[in-house]
Design goal:
By secondary structure, the chain is mainly alpha-helical. It has a single domain, classed as Winged helix-like DNA-binding domain superfamily/Winged helix DNA-binding domain (Arc Repressor Mutant, subunit A, Orthogonal Bundle). The protein has four helices and two strands.
Length: about 90
């Protein structure tokens, strides 16, 4: 069985936003609201973004960072960074 995640457009946009904002460690992450604002709300409703982030979290593309007020923040892990640094996915 292959547990490699096939990224769809919305998931890629989330990862791209985190990459462009240099969210690469637990202290430099973005909340769901910030991600939605960065993408001009192209991702749909908040619950959709939440579900996509949880899927990316389980697949090892993103990690949870420090809390911002009462909101989780998310940042790119090495696997997510490799998509943009010319590397191949494992």
């Amino acid at each position: 069985m292959n547990d490699k995640l096939e990224l769809n457009r919305l998931e890629y946009l989330i990862l791209k936003s985190l990459h462009e904002m240099e969210c690469t460690d637990r202290f430099h992450g973005m909340t769901i609201t910030e991600i939605m604002e960065e993408t001009d709300n192209a991702l749909g409703v908040r619950m959709t973004v939440y579900r996509k982030l949880n899927k990316l979290l389980k697949a090892g593309y993103v990690g949870k960072g420090v809390m911002d007020n009462h909101a989780d923040t998310f940042y790119l892990l090495d696997k997510g960074n490799r998509l943009f640094d010319g590397g191949k996915e494992e």
